[in-house]
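User: Fold this; tokens only.

Assistant: Input:
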Amino acid sequence: MQGEFVLLGDALWLDFINTRCSREADPPDLLADAREWTRWCGLMQLTTDPASHPAALTLRDQLTSIATALATGAPVPSQSLRALNLRLQDVSGRQQLVRVAGRWELPFVPANQPGTLDRIALSAAETLALPQAEVRICAGPTCSLFLLDQSPQLTRRWCSPTHCGRGMRVERRRRTGR
């Protein structure tokens, strides 16, 4: 077992790509082998086949490119977007009108239970379609974890206020003398 998974991204796809990010300067790949891929899927309550490990790593690279672009304000790489759309085209289903909290919504309802990689891709697509959300990289000085900021004022900066956020607040107080 290489290390423990950090599940603070607030979206399945961000927790997935965070298996290659860390609070360390040179993060290890937590999905380096099929056994770790299977262990992560079990932790996330996803079923998988160890043979899907190579495809998972390829998808993770594409999604990491998308998350990096979103977090830095760069254009989303067209190759990564194409890869995401290719994965999504295998998910069949329909839209269904539902009432949620007094508002009408038109969510996509898959016809069958999507596979693990399809669920990860759907999570990424849902995040990209959110009007009031931002993908960020943790502001911790050595942290490279991605997170989803859905706070009312879009002010979330740290993967964890008790880990990275606490250290930053302590350092800021030390510098200002408060």
